Amino acid sequence: MSPSLRILYVGDDSPSSTSRHRADALRRLGHEVTHINPYRDLRKHLTGWRIIVHYRTGYMFMQGEVQRWQRMQQAQLAPKGKFDVCWVDGGELLGRKVMEGFRQMARKLVLFNHDDPTGHRDGNRFLTMLRTIPSHDLCVVVRPFNVEEYRQRGARDVLRVFMSYDEVRHAAPTDDGSVPPQFDNDIVFIGRNIPGEGRDLFLHELVKAGLKPAIWGDNWQASPVWPALQPFWKGPSISGTDYVNAMRHARICLGMLSKGNRDEHTTRSMEIPYAGGLLCAERTNEHMALYKEGEEAVFWRDAAECARVCRELLADPQRIARMKLAGHQRVRANQVGAEDVGRAALQRLFAKEGAA
After folding, report:
1. Which residues contact 167 (CB under 8 A, 6 or more apart)?
2. What is the pLDDT of residues 136-178, one digit of tens each?
3. Each residue's pLDDT tens digit, 234-257
4. What three-state secondary structure class fits 268?
5. Is 319 helix (H, G, I), strand (E, B) or coil?
6. Which of 108, 131, 236, 298 is 20–30 Å from 216 (CA)?
7. b/e burial code for range 17-52 (CB count within 10 A of at least 16 → b)
C-alpha cells in the first residue's frame, strides 16, 4: 500500500455525520481525499413524500438520476486522473450501474456501512445497495454476523470492525473547571426515540424510580409516555462541542442499543468513554469484551438493575471519577477510533498486493 493514497470518498459530508468523521480520519492518516456527497446533490429527490417512497423501495426508482449524477462527477473529476480507492460510505443510493461508473474512476472499491443492511429493521432501504456487494473489492461491516451474510451475497472480501469514536471531534475540550448548567446532570441519554424499541418506556421506568435522566434527541413527543418524560427533555439532537460536553460533564451516560439493528454495541459505546463520560449500557458480550464491568463501565439487563446501579454510583462521586478515567484509557487501548478503522480497512484492501 502506498503511504499516501488518492481516495474518492462518496458519502454524507455534514460535520456531525460519522461518514464525515471517517473521511477526515483518512485525511489525518495522510491520504488525499476528494469527498462528494450524493445526499446533498440529489436532495430534491430526498425530501417530503419522495424520501418515503424511495426509502421503502430501496431507491430503485431514482437510479436514473443517480446514474446521471455519477456521470457528471466522473466528467468533473476526470482531470484528476484515476483514484487509488473509491470509498462508499452507506451506499443505499448507489446501484450496480453507478458502481460500474465508479470502477472506471478508481482501482479499488470499498463499501463501508455501519447499519445492518442484511437485517430487517429498515425494510427495503438497502435493497439497491445489497445488489452491489459483489462489485466491491472490500466490504467493511460492524456486526460479526454481517460477515457471512455479505459473503452469501457474493462479497469478495469482508472485514468486521467495531463502531468508532472520532479522535478529534469527540475529544474533550480544554477544561477550565466550569460546567455549563445545561450539562450538569446526574444521568444523560442522547439519542432519538425509535418506535417499538422501548427506549421511552425504559427511561420512564428510571423516572418512576426517582431518577432524573436528561434527554436530548428527536421524536420523543411521539411517545405515549411523553407527558412523564417532557420535564426531562432538554431539546433535539445535539452535536459538536455540545454533544461532547453533555457526555463528559454528566455523572452517568446511558448507552442504548437498537434491537432492530441487532446491536451489541453502538457508536455511543465508544464516544462516551473517549469524551470522558461514564458508559452505563446494556450488558452484552461485546460490551463486556470492550470494558471491564464495574471498573471501566457499568452494565445492566433491565431498567430495574440500571436504576440500582445509577443510585449506587451517584452516591460515590470518587468512583465515578475513577471509572471515567479508566474507561477513557481502555477505549483508546481498544484501537476503535476512526483512524484505526480507516487504517485497518486500507491495510486489508491492499494486503494481497503487499504479499505479492
Report:
1. 25, 28, 337, 338, 339
2. 999 999 999 999 999 999 999 999 999 999 999 999 888 777 8
3. 999 999 999 999 999 999 999 999
4. helix
5. helix
6. 298
7. bbbbbbbbbbeebebebebbbbbeebeebbeeeeee
